[in-house]
Design a protein that fits this description.
about 270 residues, Helicase, Ruva Protein, domain 3, 2 domains, seven-stranded mixed sheet
């Protein structure tokens, strides 16, 4: 493995102070970055995609774990210079794309199987995930770090207070498995919240038939007034009573008690 300088030294040399506007919190614990890389499975085939690599701690771990084709997407010019040094140390294995990850269709990058492995910028993490879920069939797995409360929402079952729109959309298309927590003190600067690493694996087929856009509409209406019964919360969609009957649900149910398949049935009824 290349003999690269310590991350703190690299950061000082490149003036890479963490910027709040970019949602930057740097991870220096090499044991932790190695654990994240190992959670992504066999990296020797296909393409690994990292978002917002910053000083490159996770980038190094992914390469050390055997990634033969790693694509790093970074919008901060200071971090791009650091990534170029890492690319030179591992010739032919690291490609750097200077761009905002929200503008890139990751499903078109590299060869399958594709894995996304990242310590995500928390200010855009949910928007990124929803974009990737639209192309979920293009990815083998995602190993991502979010705020703990976001992972709680991703994994929440019906009836849980954290169960909501994000739970339904994600679980409809993927299995979700929280892996381990990360103390805020592991970062520089420490974020205001705890973090969790989660494994998200796209299903071979969605949990039930539905169109993505319609499912978004149904869950937006239902959880927009989550304390109301379905017969009230779904009124913006039209004839709520008819929709609920077509889906085989109880009109007195509240959104937080409806399983993913129930929302899919509502979406199909709305499209029929």
């Amino acid at each position: 493995m290349p003999d690269l300088p310590p991350l703190r030294e690299v950061i000082a040399r490149h003036g890479l102070d963490a910027r709040k506007a970019l949602g930057q919190h740097f991870l220096f614990d090499l044991n932790l970055t190695g654990r994240i890389a190992r959670a992504a499975g066999d990296l020797s085939v296909g393409t690994v995609i990292e978002i917002g690599p910053g000083p490159g701690g996770l980038t190094r771990a992914l390469l050390e774990a055997g990634a033969t084709r790693l694509i790093a997407i970074e919008r901060d010019d200071r971090a791009i210079a650091i990534q170029q040094e890492i690319a030179a140390a591992w010739p032919g294995r690291l490609e750097i794309i200077a761009a905002d990850a929200l503008t890139i269709d990751l499903a078109t990058l590299g060869e399958a199987p594709r894995r996304i492995v990242a310590n995500l910028p928390y200010n855009i993490s949910t928007a990124l995930l929803l974009a990737w879920l639209r192309r979920a069939d293009a990815f083998e797995r995602m190993v991502l770090m979010f705020q703990k409360e976001v992972v709680d929402r991703l994994a929440a079952p019906p009836g849980d207070s954290a169960y909501g729109r994000l739970s339904v959309i994600t679980q409809w298309l993927c299995t979700v498995r929280p892996l381990f927590g990360v103390d805020r003190r592991a970062f520089t600067p420490p974020p205001a919240v705890a973090s969790t690493v989660v494994e998200i694996i796209p299903r071979p087929t969605p949990l039930a038939p539905a169109r993505f856009e319609t499912l978004e509409r149904v869950t937006a209406a239902a959880f927009g007034q989550r304390r109301k019964m379905l017969r009230s919360s779904l009124k913006p969609l039209g004839d709520a009573e008819a929709l609920i009957a077509a889906a085989g649900l109880d009109p007195t149910q509240r959104a937080e008690t409806v399983p993913v398949e129930g929302f899919c049935a509502l979406a199909c009824a709305l499209d029929s």
